[in-house]
Amino acid sequence: MISFSHVFKSYGTKTALSDLTFTAKQGEIIGLLGPNGAGKTTTMRLLVGYLAPTSGTITVNNLSPSKQRFELSNKIGYLPENNPLYSEMKVVEYLSFVSSLKKEGDISVIVDSVGLTDVLNKKIEELSRGYKQRVGLAVALMGNPEILVLDEPTSGLDPIEQEKIRELIQKFGKRKTIIFSTHILSEIEAIADKIIIINEGKLVYQGAKPKGKGAVEKLFKKVVK
Amino acid sequence: MKALYKKEIQFYFNNPIGYIVIVLFAATINFLYIKDIFIMGIASMKQFFSFIPWILLFFIPALSMRIFSEEKRTNTMEVLLTLPITETQIVVSKFLALLSLIVIGLSLTIALPFHLSTSTKIYIPEILVGYFGIILFSSFFLAISLFYSLKTKNQIVSFLLSLITLFMLLGISSDLFSGTIPKFMQDILIFFSPLFHLQNFIKGILDLRSILFFLSGTILFIVLTVFDLEKRD
């Protein structure tokens, strides 16, 4: 269970989030929508404990992400925006490094399931964007976390790679709570159960995904002026 | 913690940077020793130990400038800080990895006392105390450089900030500096001089005050770095 209650976040004098309140139940796939600079990445960083709120309360499975980051780190898998990776490392070295921190004994299951077997001994900097995204996803999935937080997981990928990543999210989403942000409205239609729309740091919509082709786009245009 | 330590060590040994820095470090020290022995005719390790801090003044900031700056620049810090590892473990792992590299560099000079023993009588415990002092001294300087590496995304800025701070610390006990301040302040400042405390080790004296000075300075800067890393701004 994820709960944001009257959360404010400021960077100096700039307010990034203002009175954000929402909840996510176990097993839900939530699409986080909003224009550039709306506060999606800040919301995700608050959720994983990388940032602390200026005021308000955030709880994830009854833990405070900013105060109990270590306890929560085994329960949340995170793919940050732009997927930062240690590019000088080989895929196998990087995954082994993360697996030893997450106490995941065998990386072969995840390697197989995200399709990294052929590139295991390549340096991350030599990989295509699609494969880099798979490495990021593998890291997020390691340790079998209950919650997945994915910040624009298909950003910058070609349509075929986007589809593959989407399939992976759906495959793993059956057993987890997933919060993902995207600019691609059709992605929300394909994957999400519930939508949260943020504009200029404020919540403008929270609820079930509207049904029908193009319904999400219509809703988005209506609430984000 | 072991995993991050291993990853940091691997970074230096999986690319030329680590080898270049260590070889350059060892080559400079060996050269200075050879100069003392053959050109100046000084058959002692004291000169050798006295020179090392000035080499470390450049090597430690160069070695540590990327350790946090690069993580901040590439945003891998965001990944690291969402993995099951505490801020203290991150700082200590990185500190130990860099200290290990310095110890490896110093170990490449271990042949020098053996060479010296062929031409003059040397007292091994005195030399071991000298090496111990250099390791404590390096730890202190390393902790300061680590602190500055976390302050900025820019490696050059990190290098310069720590170089200036370390240079000032080395300069505290110099005649040039102490001549410009009143006597009572000189005594206080000298107590904070790493070179003053290192002198005891170079002479072969294990002075508890000097050990505590280096250990507390190291711990202080490690704690400050951990606090800085724990900030969630």
Q: Would you report the number of β strands of chain A?
A: 9
Specify the biggest β-sheet of chain A: 6 strands, mixed
Structural class of chain B: mainly alpha
Q: Which pair of protein chains has the largest interface, and what are the residue counts?
A: A-B, 31 and 22 residues
Percent of residues in helices of chain B comes to over 70%
Tell me the distance between the termini of chain A. Answer: 31 Å
By DSSP, the count of extended strands of chain B is 0
Strand content of chain B: under 5%
Mean pLDDT of chain B: 88
What are the segments of chain A in which pLDDT stays under 50 over at least 5 consecutive residues?
none
Which parts of chain B are unreliable, with pLDDT below 50 for 5 consecutive residues or more? Answer: none
Instruction: Measure the end-to-end span of chain B.
Output: 25 Å
Radius of gyration computed on alpha carbons of chain B: 19 Å
Give, in spatial order, the strands making up the sheet with the most strands of chain A: 5-6-7-3-8-9
| Proportion of residues in helical segments of chain A | 25-40%
